């Protein structure tokens, strides 16, 4: 009887310790751009359940001039422990000393894709010329005003020789405009296009004019939860997240990537 009581005490103590370790009670705040939001939302319940760390996620753009960019949010004092955004935007935060040194990691990458409204005829985008004709034929083309949009406005459309024509019929609303019927075509990272209700994914744009967005994460300088934030980054880099990354049309960034 005594040995049974001792065994029961050890079991209860071990169980109590496990609960304590799994329930830190910490709360961390994440600002995420749209590119990695789908896999993030899919895996956060698992992270919170296994660590006891509560994660609150709000939205922000990786780049641009609007008040909602992640950089502008941080500048005006919005609290955050972790940011997830396009690499170009994160590099700007690093240069501005707003990131804990050495905490940045590349989570995944995604090509630019095309979506149309559900039920609409899928346009031909298999070649550069076909893609160009599709853009010119569309009444309204929409894309985000962040990193991908900057690439298209400053490089892609001028390269195709259609910058002036496209400028007359573009919005920065994004794929939700296609779902509402306010735009014919959405151009965004594939991870922002898949599984959007009311739309159908057509495919990636031709390889010759493709742009691969790298989505990265880092701990924000001044965070009161650096250790917990680093646990989240390690989790997002683990194999447990890989299926959600692939389901969002993304893939891991090659180890040799310098992006």
Helix content: 40-55%
Mean pLDDT: 90
From the 3D coordinates, which CATH architecture of the largest domain would you assign?
3-Layer(aba) Sandwich
Topology as a string of helices (H) and strands (E)? HEHEHEHEHEHHEHEHEEHH
**What quaternary form is this?**
single chain
Briefly note the structural class of the backbone. Answer: alpha/beta
Instruction: Identify the overall geometry.
Output: globular
Name of the level-1 CATH class of the largest domain: Alpha Beta
Total count of domains: 2
Question: Strand content of the residues, in percent?
Answer: 15-25%
Number of strand elements: 9
Note the total helix count. Answer: 11
Computed CA radius of gyration, to the nearest angstrom: 22 Å
The main β sheet shows up as: 9 strands, mixed
Describe the protein in words.
The chain has 259 residues and is α/β, with parallel strands linked by helices. The protein folds into two domains: 2-108 and 215-247, 3-Layer(aba) Sandwich (D-Maltodextrin-Binding Protein, domain 2); 110-212, Periplasmic binding protein-like II (D-Maltodextrin-Binding Protein, domain 2), CATH 3.40.190. Helices cover 41% and strands 20% of the residues. It has helices at residues 2-22, 37-51, 70-75, 87-95, 128-137, 147-160, 163-167, 175-180, 190-193, 226-236, 242-247; strands at 27-32, 54-59, 82-86, 105-117, 141-142, 170-171, 185-189, 199-204, 212-219. Strands 1, 2, 3, 4, 5, 6, 7, 8 and 9 form a nine-stranded mixed sheet that branches. Helix 2 (37-51) links the parallel strand 1 and strand 2. The radius of gyration is 22 Å and the shape is globular. The model is unreliable at 1-23 (pLDDT under 50).
């Amino acid at each position: 009887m005594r040995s049974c009581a001792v065994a029961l005490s050890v079991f209860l103590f071990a169980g109590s310790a496990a609960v304590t370790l799994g329930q830190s009670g910490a709360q961390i705040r994440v600002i995420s751009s749209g590119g990695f939001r789908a896999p993030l939302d899919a895996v956060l319940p698992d992270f919170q359940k296994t660590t006891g760390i509560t994660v609150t996620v709000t939205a922000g753009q990786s780049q641009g001039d609007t008040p909602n960019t992640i950089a502008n949010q941080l500048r005006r004092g919005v609290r955050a422990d972790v940011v997830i955004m396009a690499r170009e935007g994160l590099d700007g935060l690093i240069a501005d000393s707003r990131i804990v040194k050495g905490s940045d990691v590349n989570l995944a990458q995604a090509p630019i894709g095309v979506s149309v409204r559900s039920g609409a005829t899928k346009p031909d985008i298999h070649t550069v010329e076909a893609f160009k004709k599709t853009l010119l034929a569309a009444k309204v083309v929409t894309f985000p005003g962040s990193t991908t949009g900057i690439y298209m406005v400053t490089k892609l459309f001028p390269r195709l020789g259609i910058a002036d024509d496209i400028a007359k019929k573009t919005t920065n609303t994004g794929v939700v405009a296609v779902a509402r019927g306010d735009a014919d075509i959405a151009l965004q990272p594939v991870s922002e296009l898949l599984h959007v209700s009311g739309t159908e994914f057509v495919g990636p744009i031709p390889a010759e004019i493709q742009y691969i967005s790298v989505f990265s994460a880092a701990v924000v300088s001044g965070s009161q939860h650096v250790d917990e934030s680093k646990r989240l980054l390690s989790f997002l880099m683990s194999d447990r997240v890989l299926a959600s990354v692939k389901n969002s049309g993304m893939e891991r960034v090659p180890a040799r990537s310098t992006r």
